[in-house]
Amino acid sequence: MKSTILPSLLAASIGLALYGPQAVANDVLPVLAETETQSVDQADGLLIEREQIKVKPVNNSSLSQLLKTQPGIAINDATGSVRGGDLAPEEISLANARPHQTNYMIGGVTTNNISTFGANDTAGGLGGHTSGYFFDTELLESVEVMDRNVCAEYGSFTGGIINAELRKPTDEFTAEYSFKMTDSDWNSDPTLDEDNGDLESPVWGDGRYQDQYQKRFHNLFVGGAINENHKLGIGISLQESDIPLIYNGERKDQGQTNTNVFINHLATLGAWEMSNELRFSEFTDKRFLNDTFTDETDEFSDYENSSSGIGYTLKLDREFAAGMWRNTVAFDQLKNERSADVNYFKTHFDYRTGFDMGSEGSYGNLDETQNSSKLKSVFDFNALYTGSIRHQVSMGVDVTLHSAEGTYQEDFHTFTQYSNADGTVELDSWTTTAAGDYKADANQYALFATDTIEWNKLTVNLGLRAEHMELFDQTVLAPRISSSWDFETDNTNRLTVGASRYYSGSLLGWALSAEKRALQTNRQDCVAVSDGNNVSLDPNDYSCESTKQYQATDLNQADTPYSDEISLNYDLQFGNVVMNAGYLYRQQRDGLSSIYNSELGYDELHNNMESDSNIYSLRFSNADDYVFLGGKLGGYLDLGYVDAKGSGSTSSVYDSQNDLNGGSSTEWVMLDGELMRRTEMEAGSYNSDFTAGLAINANWEQYGVMWSNFINYESGRNLTLFQRQESHEIDGEMTGVAVMSSAEMESLVTWDTKVSWTPTMADERFTLSVSVTNLLDKQVKISTSGIEDNSKFTDDYYNQGRQVWLSVSARL
């Protein structure tokens, strides 16, 4: 993970235009850490260090909120406007890939949730997030994003890598505590319109219309040297959100918590450098379900979700005469659980007195546990020379062992019930998941080698990763090649081109879901043996027309998803201005979707998801801060443009194609009256076509005042809206076609700002801050979910309005 630091931000032209000689490039005075609000930009991606994390105005202290304004990075914030109390991070898409193809790392170790990733919270199924840990960014040393020219040492993605480094202890003792909070009374109310006004009731919602909330974040880090050979650091974060939700016309106390704990131990043991890291994270969320068709909430619909992770990493490095030997051993256990009032979910149609319908029950008790053991050993050889050509060779092995297990403590039932006019009761589409365990495992084994060749102004990076993936029973080869020409030999005028292939990581959730199917039985058209029996869930009390046992499916029938890229980057420094221009062409191929085949009785896997994306980016920044009105000024300007075609969503649910369990077999669509294949549609993503971000940050050290600003522009997202399903004759055969229409959402300009004061009279041990996101309180429609031209089945969502955060921190 090599990074060439280019301290960001160009607001110099603004300062020069307004203040002329008062703004003069400062090459003498050092740039204080507290003023380094720039992010690091280079050909291999993006590096944001701790001091930049601290000053950026954001809402939740999550990776998604930290990264969301960077070009080529998109997050699923479509419903965030009505869920202001949420603590969980949004899913992140890199290089326009589906979110589950983002590789989340902590300290260079993959920590992805691959058993419940990306799934929706549904009856009998756990919702999950691709990131196994929801770490508070206040506990991070740095965040690195790699979305192009990624070294062959790293795999398990087709989008990119997000690597978070937890805070490390230093030689000096440090103790820091911070508190941050916001309250809905300080912030804008969610914006509703005629299409989603029912969320306030809520009829169609899931009990999470969050117009009232209070969020409180506590953060503590203590660390330092124990003796000359040992350093110890401890970090603790507690995030709380009180959310009194609407419950049958009243308010019911609900809430979320997110707890993070880690211990870092660094040691020098003779010739060995050792690092121990113990990490823990737990997110809890209390919910209830509303009746789907009435304004009431069923008393048995409460449940609680939790996602937790505990892990350990040991790193041992040693310098030998021939080079450096790096070793990593890690283990992570990720657990998703749900505790519910009841183990059934019923939809009821009543024809006894006309027509009435309703629903009741909950999503059931369920837990799933994922265990991942990882071993990586790399030898970095000392530089070798053949004449004037320098070679830097590394070779390594990477082994990951995955296993997962799920448990139903009791039988779980989902069914539709009919009360007929004659008093008889029928159960239709009655699926029972029997109490029991289901298991799956999938291992990966990789060998990789890299060679960095340097000759005069030319640098060539050659890499190859060979990997065997048990889940797909395939061995794949991923070449990685990039080349740079340094026109000035000092990294101030450099052109880089690259071509690489990346393969998906393990998708263990597919195998686990397939095994879960084996516990399920489906009964059709069941009539109660005794009249009026509409309560029993005992199959012996009904006579059913058919009973069918589900079957597990074999994942070896699928190919491993992959992506190919071509990249071009140009870095140039002229005077105090640094420019980076980038282009990335990324093909996503063989993406998986899962469709249940009722005739065969099991899930079918299809390698039918693909996209082609052209991603352009341009950044201007300053190399050194400017002297400005007695202080220092820095900034950057980011421009980004994304043009993508591919497998767009054919569902009425916004971007559901990013949910692996919500696949589609539809190959043909009628988009705005034109018949085409799905691969010719606008690719499903969270990206706006065009984005622009301007950061301007000022610091008056003598007064302890810092002012950070970020102005962001997003063009309206292009969505496809489902209308209906039709049959058309294609190549002589009647074929199912999804009829869609395109829609362009509204463009958006927001201004985020943060003012911090560190009083010099208090020996700079206290800091008070006020942060306001979306200061102008601009809200526009950013997504629509549902069936077009039918407001009863459509929800519109807006971006979040103004939010005010207060924070205080103290340090010893």
UniProtKB/TrEMBL annotation:
The keyword Kinase does not apply. This is Outer membrane receptor protein, mostly Fe transport. Keywords: Cell outer membrane, Membrane, Receptor, Signal, TonB box, Transmembrane, Transmembrane beta strand, Transport. Residues 284-775 form the TonB-dependent receptor-like beta-barrel domain. Residues 1-25 form the signal peptide. It comes from the Bacteria. Residues 185-205 are annotated as: Disordered. It is found in: Cell outer membrane. Pfam families: Plug (PF07715), TonB_dep_Rec_b-barrel (PF00593). The keyword Transmembrane applies. GO terms for cellular component: cell outer membrane. It is a multi-pass membrane protein. Belongs to the TonB-dependent receptor family. Its main location: membrane. It comes from Shewanella piezotolerans (strain WP3 / JCM 13877). InterPro entries: Beta-barrel_TonB (IPR000531), Beta-barrel_TonB_sf (IPR036942), Plug_dom (IPR012910), Plug_dom_sf (IPR037066), TonB-dep_rcpt-like (IPR039426). Residues 48-158 form the TonB-dependent receptor plug domain.
